[in-house]
Write a structure and sequence with these properties.
This protein is an all-alpha fold. It has 2 helices and no strands. Helix 1 runs antiparallel to helix 2. 0% of the residues are buried.
Length: 53
């Protein structure tokens, strides 16, 4: 937290980091194919939403 100049910057970073982490880290072995595909689709939609704005 000491590397960020303000709490707003930290919050923005944490939000983007969470989206990226969720997109790539799904622990595939613990979920069914249907749930995995749904989670990937949701993560991709959120990722596209972040960059569309």
């Amino acid at each position: 937290m000491l590397r960020f100049r303000s709490m707003g910057t930290l919050q923005k970073f944490a939000s983007v980091h969470a989206s990226v982490c969720n997109h790539f880290n799904q622990e595939r072995s613990l979920s069914s194919r249907t749930n995995h595909k749904a989670a990937r689709a949701a993560a991709l939609a959120e990722w596209r939403g972040l960059f569309a704005a």
